[in-house]
Amino acid sequence: MRVSSHQLLDAAIRSIQKHSVEAMDWQQQISSGKKYSKASEGTVAIARGVEIQFDKSKYAMLKANQDFVATRMALADSQLGSMHDALSEMQQIGVQARDAAIGKIGLQSLAQRARAAYELLAQQAVAMDTNDERYLLDTTNVARLDQPKITAQGSDSVKQKAEVTLTGPFADNDIIELTVNGVRLQYVVSAGQTPTQVAQGIEAQFALGSNAANSAVKASSLGSVVSLEAKNAGVPFTVAVAENSSAGGITQAEVRANVTEISSARISADTVFYKAGEYLIDNFSTRSIGSGETITEARMQIEGKGPDGSSSSYFVGVYRDGILKFPQQPDSFMNLEIAITGDPDRFTELRFEANPVTVRLNPGAKLHADGAYAVELSKGDQFINGAFEQTTVNFQGTTAELPGWSAALTPSAGASTTITAGSHTVAFSDQTRFSEGNSVVLKSAGVSATATGGATATVAGPVLESNESVQLYAADPESGRVADQVSFRWAATSTQLSRVTVKLLNLDTSEETVLLNQTSNARTSDPSWAIVNHTITKNGRYQFKVESVTLDATPADADGPGGIAGINSADTSVYIDDVQVISGAKTLTAATLTFDGQPVKTATVDNGGLTYDSATKTTRINFTDSADDPSNFYDLSLDLVGDPANLRTTNTINFRVDPKVKQIEIEPGIWVPEGISFREALGNTAPNSRDVLADARAFVESLERAAVSGSLESDFTGKIANLDTATDQVLKYQIRAGVIGAQVDAAKAALEIKATELEAHRSRLLDTDIAEASAGLVRTQTLLEAARSIFARLESSNLFQRLM
After folding, report:
1. What angle do CA 437, 442, 445 make, to 5 degrees?
2. Within a 10 A sphere around the Cβ of 462, how many other Cβ atoms?
3. 65-138+667-753 falls under which CATH superfamily?
4. Closest residue by Cα to residue 491 from 517, 528, 461
5. Could you give the CA distance from residue 757 to residue 752 in angstroms, rounded to a whole number?
6. pLDDT tens, position by position, 428-455
7. Topology, domain 394-582
8. Can you spell out the DSSP letters for 497-528?
9. Is residue 660 within 8 Å of 145, Cβ to Cβ?
10. N or C: which end of the chain has fewer CB within 10 A?
11. How far is it, in rounded angstroms, from Cα 749 to Cα 755?
């Protein structure tokens, strides 16, 4: 085979290049300690290395979990051991007490020892909570203020709606024609009117009593849109539109039947407010975003301003699948989501007052009773049971007694009216504005009455009045105090007509303030809720009073001069709910702790439970320890950070305590309890178990009584038997702590072996083998020198000169 000079030269050059690269690779491996500098150099090995690194990270987490559980189990074993020792000593005392020769003095000595052992037991039962509260309790949520309640304006009952959109320009004398249920209304456009002005004009003309087309519907306008809505729920209507303008236009949206705008609206529990004030959400509108898709948006302002601080800007949220969600605004709010039931539209308004106050539960607090905790805040007096959640009624003759309220049930006839039939009562109803909780209803059933002399027959039904007065304050410019407000919700139905009158009675001045005096203008079968807010203008002690009246829907003179008109078997219901005081006080005056709905303790300024630091705007609510023996809680306090002026009297702080101990992973797929539940060990929650502290206390108290009387009680043997069972119960949980501790120790050893093996495997895959790399570098450098030598000889030969 013939080898050309060119081939020799090319081979020498390629050899030099190849071995130079290889030498650099070996040098890089030795200097970096890694086999690969790029992922492409060893895809499979590096991918496996990533998996191993992930496993190592998980093993590190498991190692931390193991140490965590081991520490807790050691503490639990020690604590339960101390409790078992105290119980064992009490058992020995029980044996000694049954010695017939012990005598009264001996019983007194044993009683003192038993009391000391019990006190030690009670302290030991609390000590673990002190060391590590979260180990014992799994709080399912942090302490939070309840979210503001939303007030919705617009149709809140099932009705029919239609919308008409106007587009300009319109010319002078253009005619817009709306036909409702066959009755035509014509609106003549004036020169220069914009579509918005035309819409406002149609709304005004529609409201005229002479307009027969408004008998079934009412009109409202927003911008250039006219909305027609059925006056009564369940009553349908038809509408047609026409116009003669060549430039302007009118578009009718499809009539929507059975529209429920808002039946409920709730703010997410995770929402945090940073800016106080009234939040107004309105103008729910749908627009196209292309490709046949649409998006529904709503706008919002805080105290009439948007994100840039101007009245012309808006926060914009997206409404989808019943959830209205706004983008994060760190200066104003975070996680603002509102769950809405219903069908909001352009005319829907949602309002609420935000509370930018955060709550911190003292991490050192010790809670021994699991359940629902709440702290009810107060900035002054409240009408008792103003939300009507306490639903007991006691009837005494013609009166009814409700928690916080009394109702007079005797009817009274109006002028020239004679009552011929009817019954009157008061009850609680689940008919409320947002379908939550209860309302109180004043009922008049089967009411019949006649009236003469042209009078309208009227029958006054039940009268509801608060039992206790509340102290309310007007605004005080000198102190800067804001005036208190009283608010309530109401609704009414009647097969005739109803009149609802609500008053505040100032007991100090004997003055009456009418908050509401409204007569319905039509028969109604579905309650339509409304809210009333009244600002107090004079200091005083006030009572709240509601009056219900049934009226004849037919004028008396319809029967002719001197004729008789009346009410025939009418039913009237007046609903009242959410009677509350919105205090203008700047700071809290009281806070009441409730457990599973029952009041436990109240903190006030006078008893030192409430303090306010104006520099940091922090309110401390300190309930200290409970009065129970043993205590259900210790060192329970909360800090409210933020201006308390933003708090409402109706605010509540909520948190729960779950009796279950959380699980934690100590090996892949192996989970154990984080610790030993002292509630279960002490028998507070586990079924078919003894209440250890109760049994121990009963034993001690029985022995103390025996020390006074000189003889043991007849059931002392039974108390010792209960104490024996309780002692065995504590021992069982101590053994469980030891078993779990041993399981953790075994898991530790296994995890260490697995971690070592993983590290070795990862090293083989990714780390440089120094011996192999050094030998490779020497071999490559030798070959490189040989190639360079060949090239040098070729370079010095005449052949190389000819090739060049």
Report:
1. 125
2. 26
3. f41 fragment of flagellin, N-terminal domain (1.20.1330.10)
4. 528
5. 9
6. 998 887 777 899 999 999 999 998 877 8
7. Jelly Rolls (2.60.120)
8. EEEEEEEEEETTTTEEEEEEEEE-SS-BSS--
9. no
10. N
11. 10
